[in-house]
Design brief:
mainly alpha; 10 helices
């Protein structure tokens, strides 16, 4: 993993660790770290994590859009040996389910954003986002973040970047019942064991990683 990847991971993990430890079972706790989702909607819990892309099309995203979203998320939260990234945590599944449900009002936002993204990539780099190497994908992401990517009307380049980054963090660190954070990959990364029944409010606010307790999610709590 490059130093650039390490720096990006360190930033996102540091932000997520505070949000998850504070009250981070629900995606809106992470969404509120960005102005794009100041009024975020809490996703309706599904009975269990459902991995919708195994057989092709997902709940909302078509195959081409799904590949692009997965590629963006992985550059935002790249995996490395012993360190899960967006693909490991199945962030794509989280985003897809959210767009088919609680974030349905953002469907057109994603459609238009992805079209504009690939149009910009073709002009600037001669290929769609998924065909670019990691270095050029990072250049594109930097251009989105700074608002320098041309050809965007609605959503703006920065709004699209902020929204996808927010959703990537949600998919990494929200409770797995929402479809991401597969096998508690994100929680393991920041040392968060879930909402343990015996934890006090003070325990939930501690900044250091918890040790010695099994990870518990909303699904297990519901069964108990």
């Amino acid at each position: 993993m490059s130093k650039h990847d390490e720096a990006r991971r360190a930033f996102l993990v540091s932000v997520a660790a505070g949000a998850v430890a504070g009250a981070g079972l629900a995606p809106e706790a992470l969404a509120q770290t960005h102005e794009q989702h100041a009024a975020a909607i809490t996703p309706t819990p599904v009975p269990a994590p459902v991995h919708v892309h195994a057989a092709g099309h997902g709940a909302f995203l078509n195959d081409d859009d799904a590949v692009t979203v997965a590629a963006i998320a992985e550059r935002l939260m790249p995996g490395a040996a012993g360190k899960p990234g967006a693909r490991d945590a199945d962030v794509l599944n989280y985003i897809d389910l959210a767009l088919a449900g609680a974030y349905a009002d953002l469907q057109d936002f994603y459609r238009r954003g992805l079209v504009q993204l690939d149009a910009y990539c073709r002009v600037a780099h001669g290929a769609p986002f998924v065909k670019l190497d990691a270095a050029r994908q990072d250049e594109v992401i930097a251009a989105l973040e700074s608002g320098k990517a041309t050809g965007f009307t609605w959503p703006s380049a920065q709004a699209f970047f902020n929204t996808v980054r927010t959703h990537t963090m949600e998919g990494m660190f929200a409770d797995p019942i929402y479809g991401g954070n597969r096998d508690f990959a994100g929680w393991r990364l920041v040392g968060f064991p879930g909402a343990q029944p015996l934890f006090t409010p003070e325990d939930m606010q501690k900044g250091q990683a918890y040790i010695g307790a099994p990870i518990i999610g909303l699904q297990a709590q519901a069964k108990s």
